[in-house]
Amino acid sequence: MGKKLEAMGFVPLQNEVTYKNLFGNMQVWEADSWQEASLSWKKSSYIHAGISGGRQYIKGPDAQKLLSRISINDVYNWKVNRCKHLVMCDENGLIVNHALTQRNSEEEFCMYAGNPWPIIKELQTGKYNAEIIQDSCFVFQMSGTLAYEFRGPAEFGPEVYQKIWEDGQEYDLKRLGWKTYTVNHTEGGFPQMTVGFETAAVVDPVFMSVPELASVGCQKHTGSYDPADARARLRTAGEVDWLWMARFDHDFIGREALEKEKANPKRKIVNLEWNLDDIMEIYRSHFEEGEDYKMIEFPCGQPQPAGGHADIVSTHDGKVVGVSSCTLYSYYYRTLFSQCILDIDQAELGNEVLVHWGDFGKKIKKARAQPKLLQKYLRVSPGFFRFECQPHSQQIFYIFFIRQII
After folding, report:
1. pLDDT single digits (tens) 47-63
2. What is the fold of 53-135+199-374?
3. CA angle (219, 389, 401) in 5-degree steps
4. Which pTM value belongs to this model?
5. pLDDT average, residue stretch 360-388
6. Can you give the residue ranges of the GCVT N-terminal domain (predicted)?
7. Residue ranges of the alpha helices (H) in 144-244?
8. Domain locations in the chain?
């Protein structure tokens, strides 16, 4: 390696990059412009670092038994070196954690970028010969891609990042930060804790009694829903369309609630495309006398992470039919949209509802919106590369090249 670079975590310190304290760590907020980053996964390629969280190892003779108790998934039909997206709920079927988890051996599992609270809480019952060990990181891609991974000493991370970025200019490689990351995720219709909803651990008094946990788990409650309305900021596995992963052949926490929801579903997840005239009225208010509407920032209406944001969604006659969160501007589609949990009878494509944009007790704009598919890029994207690494580890860095193959 050449001359040691000044670093911010595992990435080189670059003067043109904006950094932000997220979850207690300095991470890239914006490097290349958010417009360029927004187009990168459609038209060229991107590189990013520090967006995924840490990892935990679950080890011991009862590790599988433990995961079976806290997960809606079947964890016994699971080969070594294979991954599952585990979903963990409370007794009401509300999501406490969801995370990619890999089986490393018969008695060892590794959970990536997840909230370890369900594991910690269940271990406290004393029923399991198992333990959880906090460690560094892992990265993954959710759209059916081919990945190449590089690892090495953490001290070389910034230099490797710099070299990949420089060589990637031939492929119009862009640097992605948190400011635009959630556009990537939400355009594809993927629900994500801390982005579109909160962990249900925030209604667990034991969790909230531990300052180190509560400070990370809690987010500011914004939006037109009353800040005291915790339920508006939470999601069930059914509401985000994850019941297909549930196996009701084992005793897991939340099973009874989810069985009832499966038999009688109330809401589903959709992307709502907002009406342009109503969007323009929101912006126009900032150039006129009187109280203005809440500003919609670009590309994220709520600077992320914003799992505590919740806007009322109603019909034209005032009936509340859903919750809108994660309001985003797509530079590629030239549209404003939000992720919404909507009553099933209102979720037909083209049906018009009203998103109550603004904060509780302040001026509200009832913006017209319709369920819309925004996923065609998954079929037409020519490809991209991604670099990702994790700032918590003091031992190794991880580099991933991801090429879209859909």
Report:
1. 776 566 667 899 999 99
2. Gyrase A; domain 2 (3.30.1360)
3. 125
4. 0.85
5. 63
6. 54-113
7. 157-167, 178-187, 205-208, 211-217
8. 7-52+140-188+389-404, 53-135+199-374
